[in-house]
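Could you join me in thinking about how sequence relates to backbone shape in a protein? We need material for that, and I hope you will provide a protein of your own picking. Label the sequence line and the structure token line clearly, so we can match residues to local backbone shapes. Would you write everything just below, so we can both look at the same thing?
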Amino acid sequence: MTATVSLPGSKSLTNRALILASLADGPSVVRRALVSRDTVLMAKALTSLGASIDTTSDDWRVTPGTLTGDAEVDCGLAGTVMRFVPPVAGLAEGSVSFDGDAHMRNRPVGEVLTALRGLGVEVSEGDRLPFTIHGSGRVKGGRVVVDASASSQFISALLLAGARYDEGVDVRHDGKPVPSIPHIDMSVEMLRAHGVVVDDSDANRWTVAPGPIRAVDHVIEPDLSNAAPFVALAAVSRGSVTVRDWPRQTTQAGDALRDILTRMGCSVTLSPEGLTVTGTGSLHGVDLDLHDVGELTPAVAALCALADSPSHLRGIAHIRGHETDRISALAAELTGLGADVTERADGLSLRPAQLRGGVFHTYADHRMAHAGVILGAAVDGIEVENIGTTAKTFPDFAGFWSGLFAGDDRP
């Protein structure tokens, strides 16, 4: 297997760019925006609040408008919509109701809503979906304490809208360590690109000064977490896969794949052409703390199930609250295929075992689907259920993946 792939843009970057563009002091363009269910839901949410977003080309043109209420926001399965839009809705004049897919009613958002109440925003109907934000056209802002140990998005949500609050926002975390810190770094970097003053010099504290959000065009990087199944394919096929346009510097969690795959025995090279991963014929187990890059866990766990020595994946208790309980789901699906897996409170331990064919269930979770296709590339007879769930962040993933095997002797 030798392949070169170009991946769609980052969902995390696209949705942050859309939030900031909708709050900016003039029109801007989000170039190479990801077109997926999550980003379309974000665009619709912000449009319902008064922004104008033209999504008819690869470059999305965003024109801010007067923030108005009397809107309904469909969060689907998008945590960024459920958590990032309510702080914006607080600035609208009127009521904005939020709901989403059935599973979203189980995902945590209460810390964001409690924080908004503390900043003077009226929120009704509890601490889970569905809920309603009753905006008054302005938010006082100021100091707020949150426990973001379940999701870094709780902090990013407040930071992204904070410059539009009268007193800015001073967010302090009180709890277990915040997971996925690179995603907060991403929010901070993007805010600074818009001319917003952010102080993150103190541990567990982020302050955003009040002021305008300058209109800035963004070019969206490829989604590096979506690269996981493709670079993993190189590892399990003893082939070589190059991902074009891999950035030399990035805040994306997916960049950790370079180190992880190197430690597992692959050859990894970053060049002007992109990131090239070459399988060496040996895939070794690893002991990893994935606390900051938990979204990579399903793909990494799939590789660990194929490794020639034991692996331990730790620090990821928070991924139990993602699209599904990813720890339990991975333990169940890998065990069902013959893997030797122990589920732990904050992770998984895997030992070498002979895997067999069977159905790998995705739980409507795009990252679980990534794990399934990696296993299916290495083990005959594995069928991945509901591969269409990958549309959350990668439209036509199934067609793209199948195209890599055109002319190959595998089904």
Notes: The mean pLDDT is 95. DSSP finds twelve helices and 22 strands in the chain. The first strand starts at residue 2 and ends at 5.
